[in-house]
Amino acid sequence: MTTVTTVTAAAREPVGELLRQWRERRRISQLELSLAADVSTRHLSFVETGRSSPSRHLLMRLGEHLDLPLRERNRLLLAAGYAPVYPHSPLDGGELAAARDAVRRLLAAHEPYPAVVIDRSWHLVDGNDGIGLLVEAVAAELLEPPVNVLRVTLHPDGMAPHIANLGQWRAHVLGRLRREVAATADPGLAGLLEELRGYPCADPEPEIEVPGPGDVVLPLRLRRDGRELSFFSTVATFGTPLDVTLSELSIEAFYPADAATADALSAR
């Protein structure tokens, strides 16, 4: 039922209008896109205005050069009356068994340090035992599925009261989410951004990220049991995803930013 609704909605939206919206969102002129995709500017203009019907191959080329998410490339094809190219497999299905196993191995190998797997909406998909340290003071209702990682981080009943550099970390989180909204045009992410902006924060938020003394990355400084733990994080994605589900997964792994934090985690 969900698939039928999605296909019908996409088919009702003119493909030329979708294409123009994405081109303008990427701040690319018709000339620039036509040169990159090896199509005449005249033909591209006709496609955008509905005077010409694009081929399936042309739409795939344009989607690639516009760096569209796989989900949006499928939507572009559907709007033109073509079948989607990229599969959208369930994460617990057999098609993604190898990828699922690789993610779980990575999570386990990262312990005792925290690591989480998140989807396109910042919902928690999986995590290792190390994340218990991050969420042990979070209100139970925020940990009811689906758990939104950013909501847990910045909510006043979440991690926020325990983050020593909340103003810095909040600015970092909101900036990252704002860039994702610009890249994906996802209305769900835009709504989440507005929600997070409404959360209270007494700490000043810097307009730009400037390192403090000795900082080479922006750390997450978390108060726990009368001491301060400091982390930095890395983000990993699948390098060559051809499935929508895989393309929208990311793994955020936290590492101790100082020796005291490393010792505290090893002792748990």
From TrEMBL:
It comes from Prauserella oleivorans. PANTHER family: BLL4672 PROTEIN-RELATED, BLL5781 PROTEIN. This is Helix-turn-helix domain-containing protein. It comes from the Bacteria. PROSITE patterns: HTH_CROC1. Residues 19-73 form the HTH cro/C1-type domain. CDD domains: HTH_XRE.
